[in-house]
């Protein structure tokens, strides 16, 4: 678990592993999640001396990468508030994991049902990198590969990664060795832990009577002979199946021949194995058919589901390389098409926006043109008035000049009359003729 001094390592968006003790998944498991945000600390209740230890610890809102929850019949990623003590950074990947060799009784982390769980290596199998592993929660015996199913366990203690050593083993002999026989060892589901941070769990081992190299899996009663090739061992129950012959005659199995080993079905009840195996065969048929009829407009969930089914089929020994390659090419083309569609939608949106802006400009331009026309009409009216006034002014000037010319003649007449008037007033008295003057 993490300590409060490590809080600076867990920023928003960081990938972490969340312990199943936080309330989800099988006990002892770790689940990949992303930190969404750090939540504010809780406020102590009135009347208390202070916050409890949990109230003082940091709490984070995390989004699980693989765990899903149904909301209104729609599956979505699980989001949960988790105390800091239940999270840790993602453990570093060992540099040579593909070539690492595990030995019996080695403690390992096993990737199973969307999370990492504690397990113990039971036996290295004939196929390189393949092991039988006893899983504690749920209690299963699994066939696993060192990569990507197994990893060395690490514990996060005081801000450092500490490798877990081999578990201390206790052997309780419940059955005496039979003469000439070497009993195999099977791990019980029991587990002891003193609950101290960084403590090493103790797995208890006991002997169980088996015949030769046959191992009887716990809760299944299925005998597995590890010296027999997987294909022969797991296909025996299908040899005489008419349904299998019918399925194998399908075109897809002629195009992509398959030899699945169905190793995971060894942990299932015998009565179920044939149906489950045939179901996987039909799943392969349906997946390839679905891929052949995929449309670029198909939801992304369809692609994700098909990839998930291919991974499941691969665990059972199906050769899905060609199918997965085609699906990934289609997915890439879909991504490219979606990207182009987004660009087209963006351009179309810009065209609509520019068209709307153009309409606004057009209305304003029409108003300006209308105003200009009014101004031109006004200007023409003013010009006409100007010309009329200039003409009138010219006429007035001509009339004034004419009148001024008349005034000059009158002045001469006035002067003449005035002169005559003075002449009359200054002359001697005598009889004057009647005046014929006219005003």
UniProtKB/TrEMBL annotation:
<dbReference type="InterPro" id="IPR008395">
    <property type="entry name" value="Agenet-like_dom"/>
</dbReference>
<feature type="domain" description="Agenet">
    <location>
        <begin position="100"/>
        <end position="158"/>
    </location>
</feature>
<keyword id="KW-0175">Coiled coil</keyword>
<protein>
    <recommendedName>
        <fullName>Agenet domain-containing protein</fullName>
    </recommendedName>
</protein>
<keyword id="KW-0813">Transport</keyword>
<dbReference type="Pfam" id="PF05266">
    <property type="entry name" value="DUF724"/>
</dbReference>
<dbReference type="Pfam" id="PF05641">
    <property type="entry name" value="Agenet"/>
</dbReference>
<keyword id="KW-0341">Growth regulation</keyword>
<feature type="region of interest" description="Disordered">
    <location>
        <begin position="167"/>
        <end position="188"/>
    </location>
</feature>
<dbReference type="InterPro" id="IPR014002">
    <property type="entry name" value="Agenet_dom_plant"/>
</dbReference>
<feature type="coiled-coil region">
    <location>
        <begin position="330"/>
        <end position="395"/>
    </location>
</feature>
<dbReference type="InterPro" id="IPR007930">
    <property type="entry name" value="DUF724"/>
</dbReference>
């Amino acid at each position: 678990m993490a300590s409060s001094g490590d809080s600076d390592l867990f920023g928003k968006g960081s990938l972490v592993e969340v312990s199943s003790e936080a309330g989800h998944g099988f006990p002892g498991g770790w689940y990949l999640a992303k930190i969404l945000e750090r939540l504010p600390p809780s406020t102590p209740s009135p009347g208390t001396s202070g916050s409890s230890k949990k109230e003082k610890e940091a709490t984070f809102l995390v989004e699980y990468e693989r765990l899903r929850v149904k909301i209104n019949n729609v599956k979505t990623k699980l989001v949960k508030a988790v105390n800091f003590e239940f999270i840790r950074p993602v453990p570093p990947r060992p540099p040579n994991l593909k070539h690492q060799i595990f030995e019996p009784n080695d403690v390992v982390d096993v990737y199973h049902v969307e999370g990492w769980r504690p397990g113990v290596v039971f036996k290295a199998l004939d196929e390189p990198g393949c092991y039988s592993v006893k899983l504690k929660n749920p209690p299963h015996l699994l066939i696993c590969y060192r990569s990507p199913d197994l990893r060395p366990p690490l514990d996060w203690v005081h801000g450092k990664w500490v490798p877990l050593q081999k578990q201390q083993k206790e052997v309780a002999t419940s059955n005496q060795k039979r003469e000439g026989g070497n009993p195999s060892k099977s791990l019980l589901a029991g587990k002891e832990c003193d609950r101290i941070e960084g403590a090493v769990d103790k797995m208890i081992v006991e002997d169980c009577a088996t015949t030769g190299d046959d191992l009887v899996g716990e809760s299944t009663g299925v005998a597995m002979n590890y010296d027999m090739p997987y294909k022969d061992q797991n296909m025996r129950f299908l040899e005489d199946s008419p349904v299998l012959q019918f399925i194998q005659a399908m075109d897809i199995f002629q195009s992509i021949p398959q030899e699945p080993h169905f190793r995971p079905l060894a942990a299932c009840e015998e009565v179920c194995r044939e149906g489950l195996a045939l179901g996987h065969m039909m799943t392969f048929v349906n997946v390839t058919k679905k891929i052949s009829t995929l449309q670029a407009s198909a939801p992304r969930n369809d692609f994700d589901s098909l990839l998930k089914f291919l991974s499941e089929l691969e665990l059972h020994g199906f050769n899905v390389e060609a199918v997965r390659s085609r699906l990934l090419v289609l997915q890439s083309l879909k991504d490219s098409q979606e990207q182009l569609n987004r660009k087209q939608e963006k351009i179309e949106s810009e065209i609509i926006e520019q068209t709307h802006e153009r309409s606004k400009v057009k209305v304003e331009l029409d108003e300006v043109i209308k105003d200009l026309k009014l101004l031109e009409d006004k200007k023409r009216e003013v010009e006409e008035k100007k010309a009329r006034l200039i003409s009138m002014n010219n006429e007035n000037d001509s009339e004034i000049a004419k009148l001024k010319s008349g005034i000059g003649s009158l002045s001469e007449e006035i002067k003449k009359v005035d002169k005559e008037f003075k002449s009359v007033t200054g002359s001697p008295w005598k009889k004057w003729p009647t005046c014929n003057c006219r005003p």
